[in-house]
Design brief:
Rossmann fold, 5-stranded parallel sheet, 8 helices, alpha/beta, Arc Repressor Mutant, subunit A, about 220 residues, 15 strands
Length: about 220
């Protein structure tokens, strides 16, 4: 499963893309402001970033310039600005593509696929002790036995793996849970999910970093 960060403040676009990406097996995380986008870029790893040029507290071009050293994945600008100078500016900054709103879903998916095909950031298989995780097919094996995780459990595990060797803040994981279920979400909810994942996998490498979050140390096959 590929992870996409959408930096966009338009609620209709966010909801539409959330449904579209869910149907096409993408994990979508969102940031509605310049400030939040900076924090999320620093906190997590992504396979691709969709970046709106017009943000409520800044602009996408400036954000890309400021965070370029921390962005090692394809960036596609999403914007209503169709001036030639803006498009050229986007490509000169190093963007993988530039899509003018409104856009067709099939076109967006095609351009995302094209950008990802030129990226070498996707890890195919990850090994954690005796657990093998196939990231594209969302398949988890313990030895030769398949372990069944819920969609949200897998997304939490996937996010931890994508950031292996780094601390994933509790707030980031809580945001993911909230996006999946807006009801009955509190700090204890995350603790319960982590406990369930540990029990199902029977591994000890998901480390609790007191006061900060969780961390996974793994190696690739």
């Amino acid at each position: 499963m590929k992870t996409i960060l959408l930096i966009e403040d338009n609620e209709e676009i966010i909801k539409g893309l959330d449904y579209l990406f869910m149907q096409n097996e993408f994990l979508l995380l969102t940031a509605k402001t310049y400030a939040l986008a900076k924090k999320m870029i620093l906190a997590n790893k992504y396979d691709l970033i969709l970046l709106d040029v017009m943000l409520p507290d800044g602009d996408g071009f400036s954000l890309y310039k400021e965070m370029k050293e921390n962005i090692q994945v394809p960036v596609i600008f999403l914007t209503a600005k169709d001036l030639e100078d803006d498009i050229v500016c986007g490509f000169e900054l190093g963007a993988a593509d530039y899509i003018v709103k409104p856009f067709h879903n099939r076109e967006l998916l095609f351009r995302i696929s094209n950008a990802l095909n030129h990226s070498k950031t996707l890890e195919k298989v990850v090994q954690i002790e005796d657990i093998t995780i196939y990231l594209e097919s969302m398949k988890v094996l313990k030895g030769k036995t398949e372990i069944l995780l819920t969609a949200l459990e897998y997304k939490i595990l996937f996010l931890l793996i994508k950031n292996r060797g780094r601390i994933v803040p509790r707030e980031t994981l809580m945001r993911l849970i909230w996006e999946e279920n807006e009801h009955f979400v509190n700090d204890n909810t995350l603790t319960v999910y982590i406990k369930r994942i540990r029990e199902k996998l029977g591994i000890s490498c998901i480390k609790t970093i007191k006061g900060l979050g969780y961390k996974v140390d793994v190696y690739e096959k």
